[in-house]
Specification:
The chain is an alpha/beta fold. The chain has helices at about 20-35, 50-60, 75-90, 100-120, 150-165, 175-180, 205-215, 240-250, 270-280, 315-320; strands at about 5-15, 40-45, 60-65, 95-100, 130-135, 170, 190-195, 225-230, 260-265, 285-290, 305. α8 (about 240-250) links the parallel β8 and β9 (about 260-265).
């Protein structure tokens, strides 16, 4: 097969943990060549060396490490990351640049458009591919109420520019599209809604799933009580602090016939554990930590809850509903 017959696709994402956006990239990267584009050459550029990177390498997907990619904004790091992205684009010469996450979208679209201009000129003299730039909006940072109004307006500006610089933007839900087009109606035709999807998957029987979860927590869980569970990254946006505070209110009404099971890891683990202690709920709220392919344990729960402050189109809701 000649290089001219191969579609080179470069997925770019900031972090390489395994949240929703990373799951999206993993599903696309692994299924595209297998099911839809056998002639594709897929590379995933990422920051960190988390589970996404390891899972991709395990199944033979090429990865490109971006040393300066991180969630927090740092001017020097962003300048370095811009340089790394330029090198990445020239190294792989992609036909499609697919950007994911707000920060990677903004910087990637800007650098990607400059690279696009270069390839447009180069294509007049050589067979250099001119890339299509796609950005997937899994949600918008300017929706996050933890930021000040000024910061949110700056984020809106940058994310509007991201959509403008991209050839096409994918919103994972109608709500995600409406949130920005209500503020910037001229973006209406630039954004297409494509919902997340899941394949059917095996689930552990209820008793087996509960035994696996029990093995991951240090305190005993009464099997005769209601198991209310969630699978989520331990991050502010997931609203798990609200869930824990709700436990205290339920305890005050003497409704104690339940346990809260939280499956997932993340930066807020210690804070959430302390919050459970402060609300006298450590005997009810249990942290099972990160569990690989945790969706197989959904049958352990009597009730599934997702108390997020913001979401795009969460996989866990789809999986819990199957």
């Amino acid at each position: 097969m000649s290089n001219a017959d191969t579609t080179k696709i470069l997925y770019c994402i900031t972090k390489s943990n395994f949240g929703g956006a990373q799951r999206y990239v993993y599903d696309l990267a692994t299924n595209l060549r297998k099911s839809y584009q056998p002639n594709s050459d897929v590379v995933v550029a990422h920051g960190g060396n988390g589970r996404l990177a390891k899972k991709l390498r395990k199944v033979g997907i090429n990865t490109h490490y971006l040393q300066s990619a991180q969630r927090d904004v740092n001017v020097l790091k962003e300048i370095t990351l811009a340089s790394e992205l330029i090198g990445c684009f020239f190294a792989h010469r992609p036909n499609i640049i697919h950007l994911n996450s707000s920060k990677m979208g903004a910087l990637g679209a800007f650098i990607g458009r400059m690279y696009w201009l270069y390839t447009l000129v180069a294509s007049l003299f050589t067979s250099y591919p001119v890339p299509t730039i796609i950005f997937t909006a899994h949600g918008w940072a300017f929706e996050e109420t933890r930021f000040s109004l000024i910061k949110r307006r700056i984020m809106l500006l940058f994310q509007t520019i991201t959509v403008i610089l991209s050839t096409k933007t994918i919103a994972v839900s109608e709500h995600t599209k409406q949130v920005i087009t209500q503020k910037c109606s001229f973006l209406q035709n630039s954004i297409t809604v494509i919902h997340n999807g899941v394949e059917n998957f095996d689930r552990s029987p209820k008793q087996q799933a509960r035994e696996i979860i029990q093995a991951n927590v240090s305190t005993p869980i009464d099997k005769n009580r209601q198991w209310i569970g969630t699978i989520a990254e331990l991050h502010h946006n997931k609203g798990l602090d609200t869930l824990i505070e709700a436990v205290r209110k339920l305890k005050d009404t003497s409704k104690k016939d339940f346990h809260i099971l939280i499956i997932g890891g993340g930066e807020e683990k210690e804070h959430l554990q302390s919050l459970a202690d402060e609300n006298d709920a450590s005997d009810i709220v249990h942290f099972a930590g990160y569990v690989d392919d945790a969706r197989t344990l959904l049958h352990a729960f009597d009730v599934f809850v997702l108390p997020s402050r913001k979401e795009g189109f969460p996989y866990t809701i789809l999986e819990a509903g199957i």
